[in-house]
Amino acid sequence: MMRTANPAGRWALTAFTWVVAILFVFPLLWMVITAFKQEADAYTDPPRLVFTPTLDQFAGVLERGFLPYLGNSAFVTVVSTLLVLLMAVPAAYALSIAAVPGTRDALGFFLSTKMLPIVAAIIPLYVISQNLKLLDNVWALVILYTAMNLPLAIWMMRSFFLEVPKEMVEAGRVDGAPLPTLLFKVILPVVAPGIAATALICVIFSWTEFFYAVNLTAAQAGTVPVFLVGFITSEGLYWAQLSAAALLASLPVMIIGWIAQNHLVRGLSMGAVK
Amino acid sequence: MTRPAPLGDRVRKPEGKWSGTAWLRRAPLLPALLFTIVVTQIPFLLTVFYSFQSWNLVRPGSRHFVGLRNYLDVFADSQFRGAMLNTVLLTVVCVLVAMLLGLGLALLLDRKFLGRGVVRTLLITPFLILPAAGALLWKTTMFDPTYGLLNFVLGADTDWLSEYPLASVMAQIVWQWTPFMMLLILAGLQAQSKEVLEAAAVDGAGRWRTFASITLPQLGRYLQLAILLGAIYIVNSFDAIFLMTQGGPGTASTNLPYYIYQRAFEGFDVGQSAAMGVIVVILTLIVATFALRLMFRTFGLSEVR
């Protein structure tokens, strides 16, 4: 869109874009740099850019018992994402290709659950978890994250199903193909990238979820955000180690997001945007 | 724009709405529907139930029915009103600022230039790091009065988190959500019809003219979507406040999610916090009714049954 007539102007705009981008992500770049510092180099006035890099902080994070939290996050994320797909794919099918009566009401209901403030449910959820012996248990998070991502996934998958050419489905039906054949041979190959995009969004939101994790888990079932909270309750902050922990905790989702950034838009917009 | 079909038309279906075949066709929908109802609606019903009780966890045996007392107390609570105001302020400011920044960044990215892919990757990353990590990062690296980068750059020694708590929290949330806005708007920019843009250029329309009368109107749908989705998430902001200011100093940066959390998990006042939850839900429902209508229009779903 931005058209600039002369090459000099174009180069200036490119340089400007780069400067803006680097300024924007500077807090993150600084976090990465800090993660490789000794604590003494981490907070200096003025901030220090020249230092001897070290991996001590990463070792320190592991010593602090980071791995169980990472394991909990991975378990909760993977299991809840699978559960979401297991329910969202058939539901989206019923709301698009084989549209059922009341589709609009159903879609409205699913979306409305996303608009309700989660904080309003936290007390009963706490009490229920306590009664079901699910406090500080990864399964409580699995169930809640599944419910949290399901509406999003249904809206998203529906938009992918709507893109399956009608003729393909009709042709299959006329040929008398049974539903499973139709599903696995005709429809699923077309929507496979959509399923991947949906899974990506579920993974991001489950991995980064904070509110439920902080309130319903502790040492046993804590996920990586809960591990990070440990840094503010301890005596003073260990900036360098905190940076290393923040980097390690975010890295899995960062890498997945970088690789699949083209799918991000459709996922985040619940499929509204191609 | 089409309007929803009148109810009469919706009910009159060849096969009755609840006939046997209709149920069979609904079968694939049922697991998702039942799961969502059980996990999301039961807690809300319990919230309503608790909201009519006086129940404080630190006073065992104190639990009893009090009718609407909790609601009266909440309405009389000036802190609740303050938290409500903060929530509205935080949501409106963050959504708008993030959207404007996102629009700016998207416009910068919507051209071919050296390293465009790298720049885009850099710019989306704040959305991909853990919000908890982002909040702690800003608290320490940016806002620390002695060692923070902000004071170093400005040559100031401001204690940002205590002097401008709400603005500081907003800065972090805006930073976190700008990439989301940027991605959506960028998708909108790239979906623009090239012919129309070329036609405008041929007609001699200037850059700003083209932007104001062609690009912006075409972006409308994307901007609506960005506002709606951004608002859904930002109104629930908790991480940044919990980790950066703890709602303080005093209650200067307390929003509703944080206030309800405080009442429940620090005050152990189940009845009061439940009543607040119910009020928030009712307010949200009012806003969401309009939002849903907008959503259906945006998605062209108005005609779908």
From TrEMBL, chain A:
<dbReference type="Pfam" id="PF00528">
    <property type="entry name" value="BPD_transp_1"/>
</dbReference>
<comment type="similarity">
    <text>Belongs to the binding-protein-dependent transport system permease family.</text>
</comment>
<keyword id="KW-0813">Transport</keyword>
<dbReference type="GO" id="GO:0005886">
    <property type="term" value="C:plasma membrane"/>
</dbReference>
<keyword id="KW-1133">Transmembrane helix</keyword>
<dbReference type="InterPro" id="IPR050901">
    <property type="entry name" value="BP-dep_ABC_trans_perm"/>
</dbReference>
<feature type="transmembrane region" description="Helical">
    <location>
        <begin position="12"/>
        <end position="33"/>
    </location>
</feature>
<feature type="transmembrane region" description="Helical">
    <location>
        <begin position="182"/>
        <end position="206"/>
    </location>
</feature>
<dbReference type="InterPro" id="IPR035906">
    <property type="entry name" value="MetI-like_sf"/>
</dbReference>
<dbReference type="InterPro" id="IPR000515">
    <property type="entry name" value="MetI-like"/>
</dbReference>
<feature type="transmembrane region" description="Helical">
    <location>
        <begin position="139"/>
        <end position="161"/>
    </location>
</feature>
<feature type="transmembrane region" description="Helical">
    <location>
        <begin position="239"/>
        <end position="260"/>
    </location>
</feature>
<keyword id="KW-1003">Cell membrane</keyword>
<keyword id="KW-0812">Transmembrane</keyword>
<dbReference type="GO" id="GO:0055085">
    <property type="term" value="P:transmembrane transport"/>
</dbReference>
<feature type="transmembrane region" description="Helical">
    <location>
        <begin position="74"/>
        <end position="95"/>
    </location>
</feature>
<protein>
    <submittedName>
        <fullName>Sorbitol/mannitol transport system permease protein</fullName>
    </submittedName>
</protein>
<feature type="domain" description="ABC transmembrane type-1">
    <location>
        <begin position="70"/>
        <end position="260"/>
    </location>
</feature>
<keyword id="KW-0472">Membrane</keyword>
<feature type="transmembrane region" description="Helical">
    <location>
        <begin position="107"/>
        <end position="127"/>
    </location>
</feature>
<feature type="transmembrane region" description="Helical">
    <location>
        <begin position="212"/>
        <end position="232"/>
    </location>
</feature>
